[in-house]
Amino acid sequence: MKPKDDTTGTAMKVRAHVFVSDRVQGVFFRSETRFEANRRNVMGWVRNLPDGRVEAVFEGEKEDVEKLIEFCQRGPPGARVTKVDVRWEEYKGEFRGFEIRYRYYLR
């Protein structure tokens, strides 16, 4: 899915659904992701999955979301990232900030 321009036409807003694999739990991945997201004004959430991966949804300006994905490809010190799956979705603008989600709910 291609990112769309916002209503003003000045910035491209995007949404990325991200799954990060390998040693990404127990290394402050979620808190560092939240810090990086806030620094870049990216909205969304991040959480641990029962299978050991980290899942996140990022919304914001294309360049900022791409920088956050770059961070996820290396992670914080102590992390070992071997795979980052990115699924581009339609921008929804549904978030007011960035949060760590502590519970996983089956859909």
Describe the structure.
By secondary structure, this protein is α+β, with helices and mostly antiparallel strands. It has one domain (12-91): Alpha-Beta Plaits (2-Layer Sandwich), CATH 3.30.70. It is built from 2 helices and 6 strands, in the order E-E-H-E-E-H-E-E. Strands 1, 2, 3, 4, 5 and 6 form a 6-stranded mixed β-sheet that branches. Helix 1 (29-40) packs antiparallel against helix 2 (62-74). The chain is globular, with a radius of gyration of 13 Å. The mean pLDDT is 91.
What order do the helices and strands come in, and which of them pair?
Elements: E1 4-5, E2 12-23, H1 29-40, E3 43-48, E4 54-61, H2 62-74, E5 80-89, E6 98-101
Parallel strand pairs: 3-6
Antiparallel strand pairs: 1-2, 2-4, 2-5, 3-4
Helix pairs in contact: 1-2
The rough form would be described as: globular
Give the count of structural domains.
1
CATH class: Alpha Beta
What structural category characterises the helix and strand content? Answer: alpha+beta
Distance between the termini: 23 Å
| Helix segment tally | 2
Q: What is CATH's topology name?
A: Alpha-Beta Plaits
CATH architecture: 2-Layer Sandwich
Q: What is the helix fraction of residues, given as a range?
A: 10-25%
Instruction: Report the strand count.
Output: 6
Largest sheet: 6 strands, mixed
What does the average pLDDT come to?
91
Strand content: 35-45%
Order of helices and strands: EEHEEHEE
Radius of gyration: 13 Å
Given as residue ranges, the uncertain stretches (5+ residues, pLDDT < 50) are none
Index terms:
107 residues, single chain, 6-stranded mixed beta sheet, 2 helices, 23% helix, alpha+beta, Alpha-Beta Plaits
